[in-house]
């Protein structure tokens, strides 16, 4: 009989508890279009515009809550990349939508870490999407693709560093439910925002 204790890490719990919302978001036509051989520049710019709302809201209203929690927070800001991409694609865009923070009365650190988990996860996934964008559209790594390029060759290490930070934070604060709640809120908010395009 095996007496080895099996411990499920919080990273696995978080992934499992947010899987349904994550899968629903990936199943939206706009999300699927990014990995399609039929990807068009219109679909691509629409996606960037909608993500502009998401990322700007997160950086203005979620990031400040995490200033004492995520040590390299400023390095992880991405709105400048989306704006540079839209500019190079000749797309002017602005809005005052707040898809993540709208309706939230209080944002706890744990909840904010859950939202941030989704944002950082999308950076990791963006490297896969980038390959299809470069293949299907007349763009290169220096034109209109800096958002999906993420942290370039540092993307993997940056994800691992964040995950370690998240696991240490949760172990110190014992707030699994709050983090899971924030992550599911982010996935569902993005799903709703993409569905209203």
Number of strands: 0
The largest sheet is:
none
Rg over C-alpha atoms, rounded to the nearest angstrom: 17 Å
Q: So what's the overall shape?
A: globular
Q: Overall pLDDT, averaged? A: 94
Low-confidence stretches: 1-6
Which class best fits the helix and strand makeup? mainly alpha
- State the end-to-end CA separation: 56 Å
Order of helices and strands: HHHHHHHHH
> What oligomeric assembly is this protein in?
single chain
Alpha plus pi helix count: 9
Indicate the proportion of strand residues. under 5%
Helical residue percent? 55-70%
What does this structure look like?
This protein is mainly alpha-helical and 197 residues long. Helices cover 62% and strands 0% of the residues. It is built from nine helices and no strands. The radius of gyration is 17 Å and the shape is globular.
Brief account:
The protein is mainly alpha-helical. It has 9 helices and no strands.
Secondary-structure map:
Layout: H1 10-17, H2 19-26, H3 29-33, H4 41-61, H5 79-88, H6 109-136, H7 146-149, H8 155-173, H9 176-195
Keywords:
197 residues; mainly alpha; 9 helices; 62% helix; disordered N terminus
């Amino acid at each position: 009989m095996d007496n080895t204790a099996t411990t499920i890490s919080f990273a696995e719990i978080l992934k499992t508890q947010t899987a349904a919302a994550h899968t629903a978001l990936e199943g939206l036509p706009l999300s699927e279009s990014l990995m399609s051989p039929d990807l068009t520049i219109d679909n691509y710019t629409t996606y960037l515009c909608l993500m502009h709302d998401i990322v700007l809201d997160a950086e203005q209203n979620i990031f400040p809550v995490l200033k004492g929690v995520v040590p390299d927070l400023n390095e992880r800001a991405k709105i400048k990349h989306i704006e540079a991409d839209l500019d190079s694609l000749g797309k002017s865009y602005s809005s005052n939508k707040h898809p993540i923070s709208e309706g939230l009365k209080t944002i706890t650190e744990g909840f904010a870490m859950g939202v941030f988990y989704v944002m950082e996860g999308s950076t990791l996934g963006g490297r896969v999407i980038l390959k299809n964008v470069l293949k299907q559209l007349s763009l290169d790594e220096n034109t209109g693709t800096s958002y999906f390029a993420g942290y370039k060759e540092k993307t993997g290490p940056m994800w691992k560093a964040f995950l370690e930070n998240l696991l240490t934070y949760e172990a110190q604060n014992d707030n699994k439910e709050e983090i899971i709640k924030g992550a599911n809120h982010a996935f569902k908010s993005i799903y709703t925002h993409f569905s209203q395009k």
